[in-house]
Amino acid sequence: MNNPVLYVKSPPVHHLPKAARVKDTLVNENLERQDDVIDLMEKRLAYFTTDFNRRAYGDITLVMQNEERISGKVLGIEPGAVQFESGETQLTLDSADILEIEWLGKPFPLRVGNN
Question: Which superkingdom heads the taxonomic lineage of this protein's source (predicted)?
Fold first, then answer.
């Protein structure tokens, strides 16, 4: 016998079909993961904004979603955007378009701790 232990006064609950709940959950999780990936990429790129790291590592290569590779230096980071210098050209790149950071032809193994 299951007797309710706690009574909560609230509006009636309408249950969605399971398929709708799963779809909404997956969409929300994907958006949250995408935001987390973008935040992590921006933190990794921020490592290269200091003068010391910019000189020590020289040019880095950003691998973009369209598989284009852009070599140069990170000038600055803004939410959702990266200021980048490639040769004489200054670019503003969308953080969401960057897949990987490479240095000397290999993925840069930078780990960002929780701050």
Answer: Bacteria
Which helix (H) or strand (E) segment is 94 a member of?
strand 89-94
Give residue-wise pLDDT tens across range 37-57: 778 888 888 888 888 888 888
Question: What's the whole-model pTM score?
Answer: 0.64
Per the CB < 8 A criterion, the answer to whether 83 and 77 are in contact is yes
Sign of CA dihedral 95, 98, 104, 109: positive
Please identify, in words, the CATH class of the domain defined by 18-107: mainly beta
pLDDT in tens, 14-24: 444 555 444 44
Domain ranges of the chain: 18-107
95 vs 82: CA distance, rounded Å: 6
